[in-house]
Amino acid sequence: MTVLDFTDQFVSKPQHKNKVGFISLGCPKALVDSERILTQLRVEGYQIADNYGDADTVIVNTCGFITPAVEESLAAIGEALDATGKVIVTGCLGERPEKILERHPKVAAITGSEAVDDVMRHVRELLPMEQNPFTDLLPTAAPGARNGVSAPVREATSHGDVFAPSVKLTPRHFAYLKIAEGCNHTCSFCIIPKLRGKQVSRDAAAVLYEAYRLVAGGTKELVVISQDTSAYGVDIRYRESEFQEQPVRAHLTDLAAKLGEMGAWVRMHYVYPYPHVEKVVELMAAGKILPYLDVPLQHASPKILRAMRRPGAGKQLDTIRRWREICPELVIRSTFIVGFPGETESDFQELLTFLEDARLDRVGAFPYSDVEEADANALGNPVPEDIKQERLARFMEVAQRISAEKLAEKVGRVMPIIIDEFNDDEDDAAGTRLIGRTKGDAPGIDGQVYLYAGEFAGQIKIGDIVEARIEESDEYDLFGEVVARPAWLPNVPQMGHFGGH
Ligand code: SF4
């Protein structure tokens, strides 16, 4: 074979169709599923189209949590079908194929959540890749791969595989770390267990290897997620696995301690107030993981909590006080539902009193709405819509005042801030204004810190952790100036050119 013959195989060959569009809807847990599918697409040589015009087929990762999310998912499927005619639906709504087919009978395939292999099977059927002995030898480098070499997608541990996505949909400096899927609870307003099934925890080693690789690649903040993070490992009886030749239990306390040793920020989401969480708060007090807990409490009236069938409900205020004794820096985020069926004015007052007493740092609230198939739909005594809205406004007024008071306490302090983005306008020199977050702010949902870079203008990069003096505050955000730019020194060797900052 001459060189020309060889080249001809590439030049004259008609282009096969291999561009896949991807729409990712829903929560951070769904985002992790999207990352896994995108990683596998890249590994198998598919290209990711960034608009419908370029896409040969589209995958829609759907959300089915509440009625507006279902509608958004159905609309996205319709739009993708109109544009390309070939759509694979996956994710939570995919667990209810009849709902999708009723509105969109022409979708090519439907899978449930966590179904990377099924999705890939359908992609291969719709867009078969031509086998070419020359090009197939060349790996496709995933975004973020260093020097053209992709990290292995699967890595053996003593208990099965770790599936560590190398395609990330978050910026490099933070990543969601999913430690379990599904849920063993039966909250009456929620259909997640019906959609995603019972809890299935990953081995601690699998989670830790994924975290290690992320930190080695420049990730500075690990956001731990699952449906019920405090219940991690229950389903596998806290099974031991081996991480760096050491046994480690699939238990939240052990996992948090090990993650904390890597030197990145470790943030805990969806933690219920079980007794063992106290040990995790001790790790926060010792500076091992971030002093931050996202604890979805939903209500404070025992009657309403019973009707909601909430896990960990009980002496919530005592638990929060105890946590704060152990770790005074602790920032608590929570979400609540107002206007749950049967909620009286006195139940609502109980919730407001709890809010005043607990002085939670970050609070979100939603008016109750029926979710198809949820058990709560059968409860009597619905709260009229206007009363729900009026209670929501009263609730948010109290929450906003407390948030403003707590943020005002931070004025004058110097604190570490992780930089998420630049905020320059045309009058500024590049890199003069920045937006970041304190240790008490989770990406995407909490407040932000608006900063002047001062003498560090032009030197700070996205993902740097700087020291800043807080000069002002409002209801949700802080304002200040950078005073130092310390080196970042994780306990994980850094890959390639990443280091220092
Ligand atoms: S803990 Fe309750 S609200 Fe959360 S996923 Fe499980 S059933 Fe749903």
Describe this structure in words.
The longest helix is centred in the C-terminal third of the chain and has 24 residues, at 385-408. Strand 12 (240-243) and strand 13 form a beta hairpin. The chain is 31% helix and 21% strand. The chain has 13 helices and 22 strands. Helix 2 crosses helix 5 and helix 12 (345-358) runs parallel beside helix 13 (385-408). It is α/β, with parallel strands linked by helices. Mean pLDDT is 85; it is low at 1-14, 132-162 and 497-501. It is globular, with a radius of gyration of 24 Å. Iron/sulfur cluster binds next to helix 6.
Structure in a nutshell:
It is an enzyme of class 2 (transferase). With about 500 residues, the chain is of the alpha/beta class. It has 13 helices and 22 strands.
How would you describe the shape?
A: globular
User: What percentage of amino acids are in beta strands?
Assistant: 15-25%
Rg estimate, integer Å: 24 Å
Number of helices: 13
- The CATH superfamily of the largest domain is identified as tm_1862 like domain
CATH architectural type of the largest domain = Alpha-Beta Horseshoe
Number of domains: 3
Tell me which oligomeric state these chains represent.
Answer: single chain
Q: Helical percent range?
A: 25-40%
Keywords:
501 residues; alpha/beta; Rossmann fold; pyruvate-formate lyase- activating enzyme; OB fold (Dihydrolipoamide Acetyltransferase, E2P); 5-stranded parallel β-sheet; 5-stranded mixed β-barrel; 22 strands; 31% helix; disordered C terminus; binds iron/sulfur cluster
